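Treating backbone geometry as a discrete language has practical consequences that deserve illustration. Part of our work consisted of pairing the sequence of a single chain with a tokenised description of its backbone. We regard such an encoding as a compact summary of how the chain folds. The amino acid sequence and the backbone structure tokens for this protein are reproduced below.
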Amino acid sequence: MKRCVGYIELQGKRLKYYVYGTRGGGFGVEITETCIEKAEKEVSQSFVTALDLAERLRRCSVFPANLNEILEDLESADDSD
């Protein structure tokens, strides 16, 4: 399953945000800038958690090149709580 959660236009580029995966295999987020440039990473066993994260990434205008860095920052923030 792959579901588009939205897109934004920024600096003349169109960024698209997706959630993908299965219940048995887990869910991830994907950001595409062009059909060539994209980033994806599995983030949760929960579809709702992955969907919420993809929406946050879209609202904050995260580019594919920054996905891993943002996810590492979020994990670090969760670990420090």
